[in-house]
């Protein structure tokens, strides 16, 4: 479906901008900004492809990823002061990005005949590991580990995909159900400040 | 040998708990805890398999790793306040873990016809890199680089394996000699606070 | 060309020493020093080989890398107080290292029939990612992201290689033009404190 490819590129663009913004806040030079934009945008898919032995890996097999990322860096360079007020637009793009990356990751996993549960993990790896690598390279504790429902939204979307796929719904329904699930859960989580529980205390014991 | 598989699962369980404890100390949410438990437990073997091109890699080829890790996270969630006083038990499990992971890593390396010295490195990678990835993701300087004899215990155990294997001892003898070497060296090191030297000063020069 | 192999080994030696020095400053023990020297020296080529599926990867296929790195650690251990005053020599070795690693990375990429632009990226990955992994493992923000022209020197050298290769110049001319470009740009950058621009403000907006 070409609309998925278009959304893949939009997600890549959005992720690259988010990486470029983080790197420029850290006063990285132009090269550092490009690297961080790059790993944020394609890091998840790259890790997925290395783990499932899918060569050529994403950005080696399709140069459009690189062009999209370079365009995103130029865009950030030109319009940085305009992007900050657009944080809601960025948030929407980022959310579309993780939704589409989750879908594509699971589809690729199933195409490689992985167990559905492993394919589900690959969907989440595709969606969230780019951000984790970005945070490791900028010497931050990965945001994802503490953030409102984020990977969990991908998880739920992935489960919806597996179910709709299992029951043989049309490709379009699978696509919409998956992407909408991720987006709706993410929006609700941010709107209502939902968080996953932490292991501060255990069920029988006291706070440590 | 099914006892090795059982010990592999025990080691995975112990490593996953140690990862979950570190992550919960950092106030990661449930998803973050699972990720850290996961990379601690299978990160070493995963890196080994990617480096030697052994696909499907460990946790993709055998779902029992994932189930074991999820069970360890649930276990940690339920009994966190009970585990802390069990640090000696945890230490023992961890030590069994590195011993078995060293053995399995070397065996796999030799099965892939690597040079024995490279196989030895793969044994150490299997045993210690999960903890390194855990520390990187939680933004700590990897403990292993400063700790009492730890990787060195794996190194010695690995050498024992190569020697007993070279001289054609029975599989059981190879297994016991390797695992016991790692465990004994690790126990002695902790008991007597043994440490590797640091390069503070050189042999001819003065302290810098 | 055996001179390239010799320079590869010299570059490996220089990178390993730079890693060992960083690790010993952090008070890592001997094992930690070896690991950091190792990833600094072969990390870039290792990542390149995993990404382009070139097995056996660099240090698995040629044990000379490991021996060179161990020799460099012993050398650092013996002569640490003598090396510090040699920072200019070390800088020269390091610069030769990135020049040769860039060349070898692109050549390998082209040999694997990658798009020239992807091969160029592989040249840079080979040259700089070892240092990035070193900085991540020692819990520092990677130097490269803020440093004077460094990766950019590799980029320019890589472009010179692609152009001279495209026009069918002799191997020796390709080699000299590439390596000299990297070295000269790097020397000029350090001499005149050249830096890449940062995205502090955008072209139309104000400083944020």
TrEMBL record, chains A, B, C:
Chain ranges of the Glycine transporter domain: 6-80, 92-165
UniProt superkingdom: Bacteria
Keywords for this protein: Cell membrane, Membrane, Transmembrane, Transmembrane helix
Cellular compartments annotated: Cell membrane
Topology with respect to the bilayer: Multi-pass membrane protein
InterPro entries assigned to the protein according to its UniProt record, in alphabetical order: Gly_transporter
Membrane-spanning intervals of the chain: 6-23, 30-47, 59-79, 91-111, 117-137, 149-169, 175-194
Annotated family: Belongs to the UPF0126 family.
Protein name (database record): Trimeric intracellular cation channel family protein
Protein's organism: Asprobacillus argus
